[in-house]
Structure formats: structure tokens, C-alpha cells
Amino acid sequence: MIRIFIHHEIKAFLRTVGAGKSIAVKIVLAILILYLLLNVLALGFFMDKILEEVAPNEDLIASFSKTILYYFLVDLLMRFQLQELPTLQVQPYLHLRIKKNVIVRYLSFVSLLSFFNLWPVILFLPFIFKVIWVDAGHAAALFFIVAILGFTIFNNYLSLYIKRKSNLNGWVYLGYAALLILLTTADFSWHLYSIRNLSSWFFHGIIQHYWFALLPVILAAVMYFINFLYLKDNLYLEELGSKKAAYKNSTDIPFFNRFGKIGDLVSNEIKLILRNKRSRSSIIMTGAFLFYGILFYTNKSYSDSMKLFPAIFMTGLFIINYGQFMFSWQGSHFDGILISKISFSDFLKAKFLLFTTVSTLAFLLTLPYVYFGWHVIFIHLMMYLWNIGVNTVIVLFFANRNYKRIDLSKGASFNWEGVGATQLLLGLPLILCPYLIYLPGKWLGNPDIGLILIGLTGVLFVLMRNYWIRQLEADFEEKKYTIAEGFRNK
Predict the structure, then answer these.
(1) Is the preceding omega at residue 327 within 30 degrees of 0, hence cis?
(2) Where are the chain's structural domains?
(3) Where are any strands of DSSP class E within 187-285?
């Protein structure tokens, strides 16, 4: 039956309007994912060398064991941001002689095909075979693999369960975010416990007690069962994973299908970016600045405070570079937006989603900088949270004060169209505000306190996103006619 479901989905995909474009998008995404996985493979292959540099006086297996639970915490965060919900139009099958359990098993099986489940295998297996297989024995290495696969499957079904629940009840998302904040704060700030020590105790303990590896397997099985029951109870939904089944999404980018109208707006804006030279340059600059850290991290004289600069730009340059001309990119059809049925709150939500998606990809592509130490990735993570939380709000606030249109038909070279005093003022809060939070923590004697406060501020702004959208919408209502008049002036 699973083979028949797959066959039906392939036919449905090929018969849709714009299937050729969707295939092209999938090919591009596949190339990007392959590049990302090759970076992960290189990181896994040289992990023993990296750990030797980070902790030269510590046993390699012990040092490796301390980092694994941290990885799975970050993995949960990344899955919630990026992992797609497996979907199947179930209504045509419900009146047939097909058991619900078969449909639910298919959805559960498809979710395992995510590249997030391949990531830990590629990252950890090289180290396990190079070090643990040789030093601790074949059995210990195999049980290490069993434990890592167990945690991977547990994370897979836990993230899908939370996302499905949050689609029906937004408070679930807030509770999930609050729990992650408490877990990290209790470790890094309050020192109530240590995830590092817990990870070391569990994974290093597998060498002496192989049965430890059964715990994540049991957790994965329980999470699968919980997810299975939830899917079965909600199988009446037209499309699992969609909050409003009545809305037909027309986006050509599958990732944005589950966001409905907002996903359509983001998809259209991505097309705008890719089809015009001026806007496309913002993507090119974002990619080029991913190498910015090499200039800083190879120079050991730079302090952590200086490392905030590359972290801001590498994880948030798209927000700064593209966002500084918001809403000038739509200047030529801004009057049409004003009289359309699109609510401005949806328009703003689409901007937030676009910024979050691109910044998340940029953060993931900076992970190879772990070569310079895990603390570099910690700085990147804190600045990534700051960018998607605070800097997005700052950019959209200044967007309501930008009255200069941009002609997308013109090229990007030596084109100063749309640049004004607003853009000059925008750079100050984007770059200086993080230091207003970071420096007090540094002066107290622990720079990491300042970094954690930056990250928590970013998370707080993300949680308050609906509030900021209401404020920005009210501000826009006061200035929309002035903006429109400015955009009409050529």
C-alpha cells in the first residue's frame, strides 16, 4: 500500500500546473542540501582533530561524548524551523477499504526520509569508526550508533508532534519555546545542572554499560506511538499539517505550502528577488559574506567582542542588505498592494518568514566555522537569534519611513536608487544595539553572559512577534499614503 501511495503522489505532482518549475526548485534545493551534507561530512571526518585542538589534555571519546546532547538540542530547534510536515490528501482514501493505520504508517515512514535524519549519521559515524571502533571496541561503537539513531528518530517524531499540535493551538509553540529557553538558561546562566556532564555520563557510560543505548531507542518508540495515535485521531483533516484546509495554496516552493497566504507572498517575493539584478545582488552578497569569518577567526588577536561583527553579518546580512529597501522593492506596484485584499499583517508576516528562512540557511552554512572552536558557533547562534528577533523589527520599523522607490528593471552596479537618510540611520541600531546588551555582561567579568542575554532578547522578540506586527501595522496605517506618494515619484 505504501508503494501505491508513493505512486499516487508522484502522479499528482507531475500533473500539477508548474510541475517543471517545482522540479527545477527541487534540483536546486538538492544541490544545496548535498553541499551542506558534504560540509557536515568534512566536519565529521576531522572531528577528532578539532576536539584535540579544543581540548588537548582530554580523552577524545570523553570530549566527544560531552557534545552530543548539545547537538540534539540544536537539532530540535532547527527541525522546528525547517523540517516540513509529511502530507497526504487523505480524503480520497477514507471511504475506501483502507485501514487508517496503513495511512498513518505511511505518513510516519515518509517523515523518516528527511535530510535531518541523515545529518547525524554523516556527522558522527566518521568519528565513531575512526576513534571509538579502534579504542573502545566494535561493540561499543555499534551501541554508540544505536544510541545516536535512537535520539535522531526521537527528535524526528517529537518535532513533528509539536508542530502538528502548534498548528491547532499556538500556545503549544510558546510552551515549546519557553522550555528550550529554560533548559539552556538553567545550564548556561543558573548552573542548576550541566547538559555537558549529563551527555558525558550517558554516552561515555555506554562503553561500560551497553544497555544504556536502549534508553533512546525506547524514547523513540514511545514518541512514534504518541505521534501515531495523534495522527490517527486527526485523520479526518483534509491535509495533515495544514491549519486551514479550505485554503488552496498556489506557491511553487513546497516548503512554504504549509504557511498558506503568507507562503504565497514569500514565494512571490523570492521570485522577485531572483528575477531582478538589483534584488538578486542581495542574495549574492549574503553568500559572499559567509566567508567573512575567515578574515576574523584566523587572526587570534581579535577578542569575542570583535567576533560579533562577522556573526552579525554572516547570519543577518540579508536582513540588513535586502531589508533596508523594504518596501521599495514593491514600489512599482505598491498602489496595487494598498487596494488588494491582502491584509498588511499578512504582508508583514511574510517579511518575517522570509528573513527567518534566509537567516536560518545562512546560520547553517556557517557551521563549518566550528573548526575555529565551538564558541564561535555559540556566538553565531546568539547573533542569529538576535537577527531574526530584533533586527527584523528594526528593519521593518525603518521601512515605514522609506519613501524612495526602486526601479527593478535597472542593474545593481553603481545604482544608488532608493538610498537615502533612512538607510544611513538604519545601520546604527542594527550594529550598535547588540553591544548595549553584550558589554555590561563583559564588564561583569563573563562575556558569555552578554552573549546569552543577546540570544534571549532575540528569542523574546520572536515570541512577541504578533505584538510587533500589530505595532508596525498601526505605524504603517499612519504613513502608507506618504509612502505611496513617494513611490509614485520617478
Answers:
(1) yes
(2) 1-245, 247-490
(3) none
